[in-house]
Amino acid sequence: MQQVLSGTDTTPPRVAPESEQIPPAVSTFRRLMADPAGAIAFTVVALVVAAALFAPWLAPSGPWSGDMANALKAPGEAGLLGADSQGRDMVSRLLYGLHTTMLMAVASILIGCSIGACIGLAAAYYRPLSGVLMRLMDVLLSFPTILFGLAIAAILGPGLTAVIAALSISSVPLMARIVRGAALSVLQQDYIESARALGVSDLHLWRRHLLPNCMSSIMVFVTLRFGQVILLGAALSFIGLGAQPPTAELGSMAAEGRSFLFFAPHVSVLPSMLIFIVVLAFNTLGDALRDVLDPKLRK
To answer: Could you name the domain of life of the organism this protein comes from (predicted)?
Structure first.
């Protein structure tokens, strides 16, 4: 009675039980799956990654073994998807080509985005270095990826190493700009000033506060960049700078089939369609992930 008259309520707030407390990662995944386009894109990306990882076990034959009696046979005549100019099974070549393409994309993303993230964080946190570092990134942005590929191939020779180096260098300035912009907004928050006032070390501040709050922007960029890197890598391989025959790679496979386009189109069309599907899936997944992680777009 006294609580009612005084207008106060001393009832403790209800705390959700542990079963009702959803981790952020699970909540993000549920919102992503609630979007039809995001769910389809995630499923396609998961299947592509699984096919690339288990290509040696899924392929019906080796990527180099072929029978010239089956050369350029159409789908259904020699295997499910036909054979190429050397009589090699197209299913095996596509699986191994996807494996090589994904390996190239993962390596370039890990190298380029790791370096770019460190540069972006340093440019945002240490203001005297910002001008020098970002002007250097502007210089790198002025060079197209194809030019990097040509220059590195001239030094190292054509191959996957040259393509990975070119794609890594081209990813550095883009990631640096994304991370710098996200880090500048985080550094304006009050808890960052409180941590600095408490004497927290720079490394601890980066690891516990700055980098985790930039992860949403990094995840969206990496997902979108995956599709771009796969397309650029396939383009470099298409013009002869990437994987060299007989290595299976989607871009080089599409280039190999140009000579047979009128009477055996499957040799070039199938790897080109696979590139299109993979790039579209990563781009759609990146857009859906951005909508899920951005509070403004979510509202």
So the answer is: Bacteria
Give me 61's structure tokens: 């034959």
The pLDDT tens digits for 115-163 are: 999 999 888 888 888 889 999 998 988 888 888 888 888 788 888 888 9
pLDDT tens readout for residues 17-54? 443 455 667 777 788 888 889 899 999 999 999 999 99
Query: SS3 string of 86-125?
Result: CCEEHHHHHHHHHHHHHHHHHHHHHHHHHHHHHHHHHHHH
Q: Which CATH class is domain 27-55+88-297?
A: mainly alpha
**Residue-range domain boundaries for the chain:** 27-55+88-297
Omega within 30 of 0 (cis) for the link into 13: no
- What pTM was estimated for this model as a whole? 0.85
Decide: helix, strand or coil at residue 21.
Answer: coil
